[in-house]
Amino acid sequence: MPVSLSEANQLITVSHQEARKIGIAITVVIVDEGGHVQAAGRMEGAFPLSFKIAQAKAVGAAMWHRDGDVMKAVHADRPGFFGAVDRLSELPLMPGPGSLVLRRDGAVLGAIGISGATGEQDLECATAAVHAVFD
Fold first, then answer.
1. Measured between alpha carbons, how far is residue 2 from residues 36, 44, 91, 96, 132 in Å?
2. Phi first, then psi: what are they for 133, rounded to 5°?
3. In the chain, which residues have pLDDT < 50?
4. DSSP string over the chain
5. pTM for this structure?
6. Nearest one of 25, 5, 6 to 15, comparing CA atoms
7. Which residue of 1, 68, 80, 90 is most buried, as measured by CB atoms within 10 A?
């Protein structure tokens, strides 16, 4: 079962609240387990390309069942393999902090991808949202 629209909207709301607290503007994209956009929200002031970056982060996490920091390690350790896998997706995959796999009872529901600030700040917002909605 994919992440619900209600859960996706809650993830966006909490992510935006966390971003406001730390003084940044972000874009949040929530995808289902197949990498299809379920919901998205771009804060005023977030740069336009942040949507595509957040989407690429989320798609990679959902399709690989790995958080962005794990994908970054794979990219660093095996760039040729990562490059081949990247071409299998409709979107380029964006490794790095700011994406988390969404799970319930061990099943992958989708992923959250965030862009707009540093990778660490993006991840901080994603983590706050996932804990608020799924814990």
1. 10, 28, 20, 23, 18
2. -90, -35
3. none
4. -PPPHHHHHHHHHHHHHHHHHHT---EEEEEETTS-EEEEEE-TT--TTHHHHHHHHHHHHHHHT--HHHHHHHHHH-HHHHHHHHTTSSS----SSSEEEEEETTEEEEEEEEESS-HHHHHHHHHHHHHHHH-
5. 0.93
6. 25
7. 68
